[in-house]
Amino acid sequence: MAKLTPKQKRFCEEYLIDLNATQGALRAGYSPKTAYSIGQRMLKNVEVKNYIQKHLEKIQNEKIADAKEIMTYLTAVMRGEEKEEVALFCGDGIQKLAEKEICTKDRLKAAELLGKRYGMFTEKLEIEGNATVQILDDIEAGEEYD
Known about the structure:
Blueprint: H1 6-18, H2 21-27, H3 35-44, H4 46-63, H5 67-78, E1 83-89, E2 95-101, H6 104-117
Antiparallel strand pairs: 1-2
Helix pairs in contact: 1-2, 1-4, 2-3, 5-6
């Protein structure tokens, strides 16, 4: 597997800033006259594409909450450990920000979502019984039917 040159790696890092190939090429030190074509050519290079894709996935994974993070947050909300900021307006029109506890409605919703996750609210019915199956055959031998 071929390695990226320092200039190609610099292009990749600059491209990842705004996903603009021309600007990435310019910031990486390529000529303004050829920046557009160099940028497009770089994006077709297999090693460059792989490097960019790997780093885009890493960035994306860091931005997406995983199940553990969601469960931790919902638990903190349910327990009242999270606060929210609200705007307060004073008589002279000055606005202040203040922290307040999460309201009961939001804490209840967090508890409900946690309960659903753990299957606590599903109704479980047990039905027992004996049943017999009887098959009736009212077609006589040799009889045709439509």
